[in-house]
Amino acid sequence: MKKQKKIVLAYSGGLDTSIILRWLQEKYNAEVISYTADIGQKIDKEKIIKNAKKLGVKKIIIENLKDLFAKEYIYPMVRGHAIYEGVYLLGTSIARPLIAKRQIAIAKKFNAHAVSHGSTGKGNDQVRFELGYHYFGPKIKVIAPWRIWKLNSRSDLIKYAKKNKILIPKDKKGASPFSVDDNLFHTSTEGKVLENPKNAAPEFIFQRTVAPEKAPNKISYVAIGFKNGDPISVNGKKLSPGNLLQKLNILAGKNGIGRVDLVENRFIGIKSRGVYETPGGTLLMVAHRAMESVTLDKETMHQKDEIMPKYAELIYNGYWYSKARFKLQKIIDRKRNKVNGSVKLKLYKGNITIVSRQTKSNAYSMKKVSFEENKTFNKSNVERFINFHKKKL
Predict the structure, then answer these.
(1) Fold held by 186-296+335-364
(2) Which CATH number is correct for 6-66+95-176, 2.60.40.1180, 3.90.550.10, 3.40.50.1860, 3.40.50.620?
């Protein structure tokens, strides 16, 4: 008797991936292993298990990856100050490489012949997933249902779900829903009214931040401690990477910080509009840069600024595991051991103000910068410095 093939599916427990799960079973006569990475999104483990079991899944895997996600994916990106097209902090982009890596590891563990994802044929995520799959398991087959099946509309999906007795959430009957992605670092919302860039984003779509005008009329303060370039504490209390970011999400979110409305250029060549919330990540970006300002030399900081657009684009395009990204990360991290201390921020109605920077580093010299007369800075050299640069004009 021929052994049944196995497919590892990135499974959220929702309508779309449940339809994909059933479709994979029918199309390939395969055993589907459902895989869910808990990277800080809103997750109902009981619902995931219940839905998967109802669809006949025997192997249901849910992994808590929050600390790993923050430490090995978000933090390196923060050290590089990665911002795509001026405003996007790459919350969705950075999540896919980790999920892809774990899917391949599970596929190898259970001798699965293929992995599958639920990304649409017009999105960036299909690229990010599949570049990650290729890096860790180039011989493992990739199945992308949205590119090959004949379910071409929301009504087709609904009919298929009804036929297969798959639960259809009430808000997904009829019109297409908003497309929502969330994890520890951010939330994103796309589709429906947002597709027309002239329409304002409705307030009800925001999940992690209050509107700045509705934020408290009271100032909040937060101190973020850094060691070797990574955040380690909030207000003097050391926290695990996952808990630290969650703490900052709450503090920033209630103060209306971290909203972005962007029409972006997708890697596959089309423009799309997304509304993003990255409250804690926004605080980390501001605080980390402030910490570097008193701990790193000018050349190092400016080199990081020069490579950042390329670094951000590589992440956005799914090249997290590329030689090019690894090379830039080495440049970014060259002097991270010097980035130690704490930064205090003031939060008020969507705004962030740097209050103070504290460090034992000697990169910033109060003696040299002082307006009081001192012997630590030789002003007689300035004229020669200016004359040298005149020759370059």
Answers:
(1) Argininosuccinate synthetase, chain A, domain 2 (3.90.1260)
(2) 3.40.50.620
Find, among 80, 4, 14, the residue nearest to 52 by Cα: 14
Task: Tell me the catalytic residues.
Answer: 16, 96, 125, 179
**What token pair was written down for 361?**
């580093």
Residue 14, token pair as written in the block: 């929702």
In this structure, the strands spanning 141-143 and 31-38 are unpaired
Phi, psi at 195, each rounded to 5°: -65, -25
**CB burial class (10 A; 0-12, 13-18, 19+) of residue 349?**
middle
Maximum CA extent, the chain: 90
Taking each helix axis from N to C terminus, what angle separates 15-28 and 154-163, rounded to the nearest 10 degrees? Answer: 70
The two structure tokens encoding residue 80? 């590089």
| Among candidate residues 134, 154, 167, 172, the one with its CA nearest the CA of residue 54 | 167
The backbone torsions φ and ψ at residue 35, rounded to the nearest 5 degrees and listed phi first, read -125, 125
User: In terms of pTM, does the model score above 0.90?
Assistant: yes
Rounded-to-integer distance, Cα 357 and Cα 355, Å: 7
Cβ contact 237:258 at 8 Å: no
| pLDDT tier for residue 268 given thresholds of 50, 70 and 90 | confident
DSSP state of 45: H
Question: Could you report the per-residue pLDDT of 136-178, keeping only the tens digit for each?
Answer: 999 999 999 999 999 987 788 889 999 998 988 765 444 556 7
Higher pLDDT, 75 or 175: 75
User: 311 burial class (0-12, 13-18, 19+ CB within 10 angstroms)?
Assistant: buried
